[in-house]
Amino acid sequence: MKLASYKAADRARLEAFLRRQQTFAALSGQTIDAFSEENVADFEADGTISLLVEADAEVIAVVDLLRRHPVDGSLWLGLFVVDERYHGNGIAQSLYEQLEQEQMLPFHSVFRLGVLQHNERAYRFWQRQGYVYEKESVTARGDHVLIKTICP
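Structure (tokenized):
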């Protein structure tokens, strides 16, 4: 798997990837159009590290990181979506391990992310990665905030 920084020229590939993620959009309570538009806008906004994950020249996952949250100072994993066609085969696990080593640990030791309360599969995945429940967030979607701290 290759992590590549998102560029404006990748927009059509990003949109095509997001439009295939019907289940994730539904879990988010969004139409596929709203889901795609929101995440493309996030990828094109300043202040985050936006990555496409490729295998055989195909986008198989997307990641959006905020290296230093303005309120709590920690690194936030804003979006981590693996193509639905690859769920259950270990790609997400391998990708997360690579992401943590290459893009997260060099910059921080406290990581946070939000998980939709009703997305039990994602919740279990993040627990296996060492994240624990911290608090409920105040978003419209009612996310749970999970935290992972790496001791130096």
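The chain is about 35% helix and 30% strand. The longest strand covers residues 58-66.
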